[in-house]
Amino acid sequence: MMALTVHSKEVGKWREMWLDELSSLRRLSEQTLIAYDRDLDQLLQFLVNHLGEPVHTKHLQNLTPTDWRAFLAYRRANGAKNRSIARSLSALKSFYKFLAKEGWATPDSLNAIRAPKKDQSLPKALTAIDAKRMIEQGGMLDDEPWIAARDIAVMALCYGGGLRISEALALTPSDFDGNDALRITGKGGKTRMVPIIKPIYAAIEDYQRKCPFQPGPKDALFRGARGGPLRARLVQLKMQKLRSAFGLPASATPHALRHSFATHLLGAGGDLRAIQELLGHASLSTTQIYTKVDSAHLMEAYLKAHPRS
């Protein structure tokens, strides 16, 4: 039995136009665009089975709240958690707003569906000792001194500056503002200034001295073995090897270094608003999760040490 075509050419055209608009006007990241496209694809895959025929514009126009609830039940049956479902609804509402603007559909039935409350999982931070050890000994598995220096510099930026791995790898020589700050372009194209302490700057300078490639002012600072821009996957694989070498849990990832930055700052009395600015969070509520992490660490220490615990 042949598989049904998922959607009509017209729906495919609206799909491409929507993604183009998200990319050019809203300047969403490539990862977000991929996730949004996947969310729409999941709806279309559900509908082609639900309807028994390829999805046309008329089907998208006539979906009812009952259809949307059936779709959410389908997602849950396939293992989707609240966070994924909420993101999926956000993506689909964006698609329907686009269709409404083009005069092809209204988002009324979808707007009647409330997003589930997101599961709030606490970020897993490394201890200060483990984070420091990963950076100081981060080059122990490399034969090439410049690659060892590169990896140390990248990890130092994630832990010492709270950068996302994508932000660290997007840095160019022109992003350095003197010797004490970096200009970081984060999510949504928002720019922030991040102070850089001397050990991090020294690690970056050490890499630049040893690197056999000389990127231009607007080129990616961190280079791969063949001279192209360094890919995040290579940094992730490096930390995977370091986890094995140091006996650390699977949660010790590049992003965990960013979590560690925020958690350790807060634990040392750092101001929550200042940490929000350093991390580039649009909302303070996103940063507030670290107060729960710090409380969790305090409770863990209490249960281990108090004689009446």
What would the keywords be for this entry?
309 residues, mainly alpha, 15 helices, 59% helix, 3% strand, elongated
The rounded distance between the terminal residues' Cα atoms is 64 Å
Q: How do the strands line up in the largest sheet?
A: 1-2
Helix and strand string, N-terminal first? HHHHHHHHHEEHHHHHH
Low-confidence stretches: none
Largest sheet: 2 strands, antiparallel
Helical residue percent band: 55-70%
- The rough form would be described as elongated
Report the average pLDDT across residues: 82
Number of helices: 15
Rg over CA atoms, rounded to whole Å, is: 23 Å
Which oligomeric form is depicted? single chain
Strand content: under 5%
Number of strands: 2
Structural class: mainly alpha
